Amino acid sequence: MKRIKVAVIGLGFFGMRHARLYARHPAAELVAVCDLDPRLRAEAERLTGATAHEGYDAILADPAIDAISICLPDRLHVDAAVAAARAGKTILLEKPMAHSTPAARRIADAVEASGVRLMVGHILRFDPRYVQVHAAAAPERLGEVIHMRAKRHGIRSTAARLGDRSSILFYMGVHDVDAMQWVARSRIARVYAQKRQVLGNGNEDALQAIVNFESGAIGIIDYSWAWPDGLMNGYRATLEVVGTKSATYLDCADQGFYTVTDQVMQGGDTHLWPEVNGRIAGDLADEIDHFVLATRDGAPYLQDWREAFDAIPVLDALARSATTGERTDVAR
Fold first, then answer.
1. pTM over cut 0.70
2. What is d(CA 223, CA 206) in angstroms, rounded to the nearest whole number?
3. Can you tell me the distance from the alpha carbon of 235 to that of 291, in angstroms, rounded to the nearest whole number?
4. Does the pLDDT value for residue 170 go beyond 90?
5. Are 267 and 255 spatial neighbours (Cβ–Cβ below 8 Å)?
6. What domains are there in the chain, each with its CATH number?
7. 322 Cα distance to chain centroid
8. Which of 46, 6, 51 shows the shortest CA–CA distance to 25?
9. Contact, 259 vs 265, CB < 8 A?
10. Count of C-beta atoms within a 10 Å radius of residue 325
11. How far is CA 161 from CA 22, 74, 157, 260, 266, in A?
C-alpha cells in the first residue's frame, strides 16, 4: 500500500491525537512533529517514534514530507499555514481556519497561489449524528428551511484556561456556524448578537444571536462558557431544523455512557475521540483517515476549504454585533 509521509505542527490537545492517529494509520508514515514544549516533544517521540523538532522550519524544508497537520492555536494559524503552502505541502488545518477574515484570506491567497491542497478540520462533518441531520434536511425531505436553532454550552474552566487567547466564537462557535450553513444549504447573511462577560475569564461567558440566511430562513445561536465544571462531559450541544415538509434535530447532552458514585454521576466520550482498546476511535479518527486516503489518492476532500472559509466572516460579524449592539451584515 502506498503511504504518504506526514508531520504535525503543534502537540497540544489535538496535535498529540493527530500524531498518534497518523502513527498507526496503514497509509501514513509519521515522519516528524514539532512543539515549543520539550515535554510534549518527548512524549510524542515516545508514543509515535517520530523525530521531534522545536520549530517547523526543518519540517517544511524536508522534500520527503507530503502533508502537514497544523494544530496550533487559531491565532497562530496564518504564519504556519502560509509557510506550509509556500513549501508545497498538503495541509490539514485544525478549525477554525483563522481568527479573523483577513487572516483567513491570507491563508486562502497562499493556498491558491501555490496550488496546494487544503482541508480544514471541521470534525462535525464526520460525526454520524450531524451527518444524519444533514441528510434529513435535504430539500426533497425537509422542504424549505423555516427556522433553525443551534446550542453549544461548555464549562467555565475551559474559558479560564484559554483566557483572552481565544473567543467563544472561534473556539466553539465555528462548529455550529459551519454546521448551520451546511445543513441549511444556505449562507448566513445578517446577524444580531448580544454577549455577557461577568466571570472575568478574558472572553465571553455567553453569546446569543438571531441570524438571517440568504434563503430567508431564520436561526438562533446560543453559546455559553458559563456552566460549572460539573456539567456532564464538559459540554452539551443541540441542533434543530424545521422545514415546510418535516423537521429534524439532535441532542448531544450526553453520549450514552455513565459512571455513578455516591458523590457524582459522570459521562464519557463515545463519539469524538474515545480511547477504544488502546486506540483513538470516533469522529477524529474518521477525519484523519479521510484526509490520509483522499490525499494519497488525489480524491476530493469531504468539505471544500472555501466552505470552511465561509464560517469566518460570520464569526467576525457576530463579534462586531455583540460589541456594537447593532444588526450586522456578513461581509464576504
1. yes
2. 6
3. 27
4. yes
5. yes
6. 4-121 (3.40.50.720), 127-274+310-329 (3.30.360.10)
7. 22
8. 6
9. yes
10. 11
11. 27, 15, 6, 27, 21
